[in-house]
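A.,

Following up on our hallway conversation. Structure tokens first:
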């Protein structure tokens, strides 16, 4: 009975904690507005009203669709190629030991310095946006996957080899299921940084997308547009991350 009661109260408790956090952030936002003034930021109420008006404009949805297309392409590549390459590097220890410091160095440098190279290779357009978003998201997925495969119990790998499984069969039947929770953590982080990379690519080399709208607003100091776009991007990333975290907790409970 006690376990059932905890399970029933837990979602309500979590919702209450989220409501308290959101309320705290709104109050802090309002206080920051008092300190910075209208030149630097708008109030929460002003931002919510402007966001509501922006959401019914065709121009916003055209640019949102462009960002969504680039983000979806980058995310698909990162979510498919990242785990596959990470499993291969994790399974082949020598390759992983060589690749890991290179990946860590690549992940630690500001990706914007690589954007001119991406433009030279892919040119202006959707391909460059997808490539830049993928560059942000695929590296953490690969690193988390490599680490997850290395932490698999050696007895599982020896069992697969004793059964004569091929590398692909070993990945599909043993490595992937055993490492899935930690791989999913990498996918969750990759989701957020892929979104960041996509928006940044639109800011620096695109004529469409939410990043392009944000860059335009920065150029003319349109504080309302800046705050509205920031609010929507933060809300989208937070909601998506919360959903992915709930799936991640379920995966860890099953292991």
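Then the amino acids I'd put at each of the 255 positions:
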């Amino acid at each position: 009975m006690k376990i059932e009661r905890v399970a029933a109260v837990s979602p309500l408790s979590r919702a209450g904690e989220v409501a308290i956090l959101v309320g705290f952030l709104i109050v802090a936002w309002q206080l920051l507005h008092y300190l910075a003034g209208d030149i630097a930021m708008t109030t929460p109420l002003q931002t919510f009203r402007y966001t509501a008006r922006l959401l019914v404009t065709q121009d916003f949805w055209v640019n949102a669709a462009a960002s969504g297309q680039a983000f979806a392409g980058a995310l698909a590549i990162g979510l498919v190629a990242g785990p596959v390459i990470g499993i291969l590097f994790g399974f082949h220890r020598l390759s992983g030991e060589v690749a890991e410091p290179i990946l860590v160095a690549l992940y630690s440098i500001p990706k914007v310095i690589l954007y001119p190279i991406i433009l030279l290779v892919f040119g202006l357009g959707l391909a460059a946006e997808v490539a830049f978003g993928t560059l942000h998201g695929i590296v953490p997925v690969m690193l988390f996957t490599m680490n997850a495969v290395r932490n698999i119990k050696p007895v599982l790998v020896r069992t697969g080899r004793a059964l004569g499984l091929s590398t692909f069969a070993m990945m599909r039947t043993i490595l992937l299921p055993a490492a899935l929770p930690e791989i999913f953590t990498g996918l969750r982080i990759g989701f957020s940084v892929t979104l960041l990379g996509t928006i940044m690519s639109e800011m620096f080399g695109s004529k469409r997308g939410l990043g392009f709208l944000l860059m335009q607003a920065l150029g003319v100091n349109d504080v309302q547009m800046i705050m509205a776009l920031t609010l929507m991007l933060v809300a989208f990333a937070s909601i998506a991350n919360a959903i992915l975290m709930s799936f991640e907790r379920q995966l860890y409970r099953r292991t």
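Residues 1-9 have pLDDT under 50 and may be disordered. Curious whether your intuition agrees with the design.

B.
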